[in-house]
Inverse folding.
């Protein structure tokens, strides 16, 4: 979440618009993967002499799939026209994510043809593991290896998972907990079903010299994790699980840890911000990142008395480059490309440990407008992320979205500024008011999961201020939750946060259900009643504040907007 202040002018009027068209569900279909694409091969120079090769689509050979079968990987190769070669062979290369072209290891060689299957060992949990590598096809031409296919990753890493814990999917009401002020009884009283929390690689990585370090043997090496910090996470996660609460963990790279400096991307070394891009540029860092993913997913699989994490979010608002996924490159393609590589590694390593874990990306509400020139638009980032995911092997990734009001301190979740919140795909921001736009967007065939389903959408961070009145926060919390509950594709609604933060309050962001003195605000009680037998009371209170029946407002997609650009006196 970006914190900022913006001068605005007072004055607004209610404008009612109806959004009554019913969203059409997309039938489950097999997604046609980019046929007849004609993108030209291009080379983008990115910062300080670095070069990014964005490989062309439309190569003559296509890898239909790469899947695990037993202890092997099966690679289905197809070609409309078999490319000429010196020896009539296809060479299957396994590249690490930092390698490009036919530079990795040749793992298979088969006769070239229009439809061919290549098989090679997975070598799981060895120094030559193919689990998180990318594969490509090359032919020998004039004595040189020439790449003739796009890259493709293994798309079913769960096939080797030794743990398959039943997910704790019991409801979408969630919160960022205040561990210093909130007892578990209070969480139960609120009816919380999910919690979200941050974990920094800085805190958990260690080496053998750290007292109490936990050794972890993986891929032929021994890695170490901070026993003191990991045990604290064990206790927290386990305790929430005992009360039936699902845990979502946001994995962050703060760039400050003594034992995780190798995980900071080379083009992020000059940064000074809360979050840094993960390093996918060299062998040591990639091996370390694989171990981090495997360790966390194994430990929090629910099988080792350490607790169970059902959902992992890779980074936070990664389109906000200068804040949460920092590199010094302003290239959208470069930044998405390295994020995709880190995401692929963590997805495959985590799913290979716990088959039922979900892995999410994370973008903010700045759909078509940047409040920070150093950021990328959420929409363009999502589009580019999905492009790589489809091109290189579709997997069951989830979307973590943060539909804050715009501006952040605006207290009216149901009545945003017309200049920022609009009922169209070109809207500057997507908030809870127009969240249907995002849902509809994710129903497009190109965004569907491998099974043809709409992806899991987690509203993993959303908050409403009480700085301009407790009543507005009450109604906003009710409106946001009920809107989320009305959308079957939304799997989580996480309020940020349980207790006000003094620093955030300097920007009129009193987002907690508790004030700084630990007193429960009126929003606490309305959130408590939502999703329970007392929900009618919460709805009546919200309807009174809003001035319209809240059930009707949500069911009919009624959208009020006001003039000006978000000022509140």
């Amino acid at each position: 979440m970006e914190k900022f202040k913006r001068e605005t002018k007072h004055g607004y009027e209610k404008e009612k618009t109806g959004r009554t068209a019913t969203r059409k569900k997309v039938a489950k279909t097999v997604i046609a993967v980019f046929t007849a694409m004609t993108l030209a091969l291009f080379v983008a120079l990115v910062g300080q002499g670095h070069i990014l090769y964005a490989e062309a689509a439309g190569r003559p050979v296509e890898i239909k799939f790469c899947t695990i079968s037993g202890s092997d990987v099966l690679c289905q190769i197809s070609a409309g026209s078999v490319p000429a070669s010196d020896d009539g062979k296809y060479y299957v290369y396994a590249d690490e994510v930092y390698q490009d072209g036919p530079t990795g290891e040749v793992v298979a060689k088969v006769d070239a043809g229009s439809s061919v299957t290549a098989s090679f060992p997975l070598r799981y949990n060895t120094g030559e593991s193919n689990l998180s590598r990318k594969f490509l096809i090359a032919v020998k031409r004039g004595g040189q290896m020439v790449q003739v296919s796009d890259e493709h990753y293994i798309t079913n890493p769960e096939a080797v998972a030794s743990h398959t814990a039943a997910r704790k999917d019991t409801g979408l009401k969630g919160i960022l907990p205040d561990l210093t002020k909130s007892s578990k009884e209070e969480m139960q009283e609120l009816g919380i079903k999910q919690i979200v929390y941050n974990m920094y690689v800085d805190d958990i990585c260690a080496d053998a010299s750290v007292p109490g370090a936990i050794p972890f043997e993986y891929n032929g090496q021994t890695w170490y994790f901070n026993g003191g910090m990991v045990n604290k996470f064990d206790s927290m996660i386990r305790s929430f699980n005992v009360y039936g609460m699902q845990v979502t963990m946001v994995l962050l790279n703060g760039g400050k840890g003594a034992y995780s400096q190798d995980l900071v991307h080379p083009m992020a070394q000059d940064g000074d911000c809360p979050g840094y891009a993960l390093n996918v540029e060299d062998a040591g860092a990639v091996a370390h990142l694989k171990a981090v993913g495997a360790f966390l997913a194994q430990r929090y699989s629910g099988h080792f008395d350490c607790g169970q994490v059902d959902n992992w979010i890779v980074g936070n608002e990664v389109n906000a480059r200068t804040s949460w996924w920092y590199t010094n490159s302003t290239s959208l393609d470069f930044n998405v490309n390295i994020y995709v590589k880190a995401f692929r590694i963590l997805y495959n390593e985590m799913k290979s440990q716990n088959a039922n874990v979900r892995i999410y990306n994370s973008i903010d509400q700045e759909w078509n407008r940047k409040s920070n020139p150093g950021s990328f638009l959420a929409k363009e980032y999502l589009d580019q992320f999905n492009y790589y995911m489809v091109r290189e092997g579709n997997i069951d990734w989830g979307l973590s979205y943060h539909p804050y009001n715009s501006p952040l301190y605006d207290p009216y979740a149901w009545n945003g500024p017309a200049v920022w919140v609009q009922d169209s795909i070109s809207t500057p921001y997507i908030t809870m008011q127009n969240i249907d736009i995002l849902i509809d967007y994710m129903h497009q065939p190109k965004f569907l999961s491998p099974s043809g389903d709409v992806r899991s959408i987690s509203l993993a961070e959303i908050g409403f201020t009480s700085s301009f009145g407790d009543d507005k926060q009450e109604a906003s919390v009710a409106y946001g939750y009920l809107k989320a509950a009305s959308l079957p594709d939304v799997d989580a609604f996480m309020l940020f946060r349980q207790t006000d933060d003094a620093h955030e309050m300097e920007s009129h962001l009193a987002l907690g259900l508790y004030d700084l003195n630990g007193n429960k605000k009126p929003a606490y009680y309305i959130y408590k009643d939502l999703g329970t037998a007392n929900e009618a009371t919460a709805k009546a209170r919200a309807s009174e504040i809003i001035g319209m029946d809240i059930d009707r407002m949500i069911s009919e997609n009624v959208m009020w907007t006001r003039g000006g650009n978000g000022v509140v006196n």
In short: The longest helix spans residues 332-351.
